[in-house]
Amino acid sequence: MAALETGLLAATVGCVLANSFEVVAKAAQAQFVLQNSAEVGVARKWIPHLAVLEGAGAAGLVLGLLGLPLLGLAAAAGLVLFFAGAVIAHVRARVFHNLAFPLAFLALAVAAGTHFARSIG
């Protein structure tokens, strides 16, 4: 069980780091963000709003790690929904060449949710 807990904690920290990187990239309107958004049919005007949502999720995970596990669980659930939407956008647009990225972020969010769910009870 200790290995599982350690793995889930590491995945939660990884989720915070990965999402924080993406928030910065979205805020800076990095070329790969603009290109990917255009490919899947997300208008450029939505990128800042998506960055705020993703940033709120990452911040909630941090607060969960700092002692507010219910908030961490809620943030993880929000990120699961966020990345499920990203996967759906990729599939709908038939953009499969980089589908691994939203799937990986989705897996990290699920692991973070599992971490907080186990810590609650």
Structural class: mainly alpha
Let me know the average pLDDT.
96
Taking pLDDT < 50 over at least 5 consecutive residues as the criterion, the unreliable ranges are none
Estimate nothing, just give the exact number of structural domains. 1
Radius of gyration: 14 Å
Sheet having the most strands:
none
Content of β-strand: under 5%
How many helical elements? 5
Number of strands: 0
- The SSE order reads HHHHH
- Give the fraction of residues assigned to helices: over 70%
Oligomer: single chain
Shape: globular
Subcellular location: Membrane
Keywords: Membrane, Transmembrane, Transmembrane helix
Transmembrane segments: 73-93, 99-117
Protein name: CHASE2 domain-containing sensor protein
Overall description:
The protein is mainly alpha-helical and 121 residues long. It has one domain. Helices cover 83% and strands 0% of the residues. The protein has helices at residues 2-27, 31-40, 47-65, 69-92, 100-120. The longest helix has 26 residues, at 2-27. 24% of the residues are buried. The mean pLDDT is 96.
List keywords for this structure.
CHASE2 domain-containing sensor protein, transmembrane helix, 121 residues, DoxX, membrane, single chain
Q: In summary, what is this structure?
A:
With 121 residues, this protein is mostly helical.
SSE layout and pairing:
Elements (H helix, E strand, L loop, with lengths): L1 H26 L3 H10 L6 H19 L3 H24 L7 H21 L1
Helix pairs in contact: 1-3, 1-5, 3-4, 4-5
